[in-house]
Amino acid sequence: MSDQKSSTKSTLRYALGPGLILAAAAIGVSHLVQSTRAGAEFGFTLIWAVVLANLSKYPFLEFGPRYTIATKESLIRGYQKLGKWAIWTFGGFTVITMCIVQAAVTIVTASLAAELTGIELSPLLWSAIILAICFLILSRGQYSALDGAIKIIIVVLSISTFIALIVAATSPSGIIRPEAPSVWNETGIFFLIALMGWMPILIDASAWHSLWILERIKQTKYTPSLKESLTDFNIGYIGAGIMALAFLSLGALVMFGANIDFASSGSAFANQLVSMYTSTLGDWTYWIIIICAFTAMFSTTLTVTDGYPRACAHLFNLDLDDEAKAPVYKSYKGLLFMISLLSLGVLYLAGSRFIFMVDLATTISFLTAPVFAFINYKLIYSKHFPEDQKPPVWLKYLCWFGMIFITGFALLFLYWKISFS
To answer: What percent of the chain stands above pLDDT 70?
Structure first.
């Protein structure tokens, strides 16, 4: 029995990676920006929204590793088998959202880079520098080297976050906490949708996760079992959800009721974020916190910068016979450059409207979430997926709840939008 457990642990290390990369992509805008804003503006009253958003998206993101391990192919190949409607829907929504999403995560990273270095450049120029670095790393095939670094980044950021949370919870603030404002109005509903849009991450990231699993198999030459792959996924997903609650709590404990207006510009937000930690931990933690926050956002930007061109390249190369053994796609580098350039164009048009960019990207992601959720559900319960690998009954019920929850809030948003327009 002990030999069997030892063997399981030794093989599990080969499976660990894609799920943690997904977590690194998640612990970004949805956590550093939106969760903190939720606590700062509404106290603890939106904990339910964070929990339900994580719970409702769980099955649709879990289908990424489930499908890939069971069929040895990507979700995108599965969409192709469903029919043209599925592959064209996925491709169409990807094209519509990719530049806006990449622009949003990049501008947050650029703001933290300016705070870290003290170099005052325009947000657009800093964004161009960040994307250029990502391009160099990814085009040279060094992305796999980030795998180990991401694990360290998440551990350090998690430890520093929870230390700050404990100190904030146990230290008397002297702040008189007001009654939390209602979220059920025009402004509140719009923010609620933006909060849940990337909580913990957009559903189409399940396709990226699927491709990262194939890359991990190529890298290690080891095909994990379904149990091992789901363990990797659950560690990353549950960890990202806990971190979201931690950031919301920090915002509620440090900023709510303190008459601090949440910054609308990127540079001011970066300073505000770091101050939230140093005010509880002490000024000596400044460099630790700013480096951790920047690195966390940079890893998010890097994964997003890789995810979209990788998915698009896959769409253009669906005629490849064996995805797990396929070489790097020739179209990947070109798409990497083009999407990054278009994202800079979006930032140029948006100007310095930091919060606007973040809310726009997260809102669009939430409104498209029901479509991606339905496609993933349809694929897993189709004839193209092995019957003996289908999810347990409880996960099917959670799918139904998730689709009702996501679709219901999307319709509520549209109703409020039309009513107040």
So the answer is: 84
Whole-number Å distance between alpha carbons of 391 and 58: 12
Closest CA to 107 of 377, 349, 386: 349
Write the DSSP string, 216-245.
HHHHH-----HHHHHHHHHHHHHHHHHHHH
Within the chain, how many helices (H) and strands (E) appear?
16, 0
Cβ contact 164:144 at 8 Å: no
Mean pLDDT of 390-409: 92
Cβ–Cβ < 8 Å for 199, 244:
yes
Residue bearing the bigger pLDDT, 398 or 250: 398
Backbone angles phi, psi at 202, to 5 degrees: -65, 145
Q: Quickly tell me which residue has 């300016």 as its tokens.
A: 114
Helix intervals (H) in 282-353: 286-316, 330-350
Q: Which CATH architecture has domain 18-419?
A: Up-down Bundle (1.20)
Q: Answer yes or no: are the C-beta atoms of 62 and 226 closer than 8 Å.
A: no
The stretch 285-300 carries a mean pLDDT of 80
CA 12, 17, 23, 26 dihedral sign is negative
Domain boundaries, the chain: 18-419
DSSP state of 65: H
**Is the separation of the CB atoms in 235 and 19 below 8 Å?**
yes
User: What would the pLDDT profile of 34-43 be if each residue is shown by its tens digit?
Assistant: 888 899 888 8
pLDDT surpasses 60 at 146: no
User: Which residues are CB-contacts of 199 (< 8 A; sequence separation ≥ 6)?
Assistant: 30, 34, 35, 49, 50, 53, 54, 57, 244
Of 214, 211, 232, 236, whose CA–CA distance to 223 is shortest? 214
More confident call, 206 vs 258: 206
Half-sphere exposure of 149 (CA within 13 A, CB side): 13
Nearest to 204 by CA among 60, 108, 305, 325: 60
Q: What are the two backbone dihedrals, phi and then psi, of residue 200, each rounded to the nearest 5 degrees?
A: -85, -15
Q: What are 111's two structure tokens?
A: 């703001």
**CB count in 10 Å sphere of residue 16:** 18
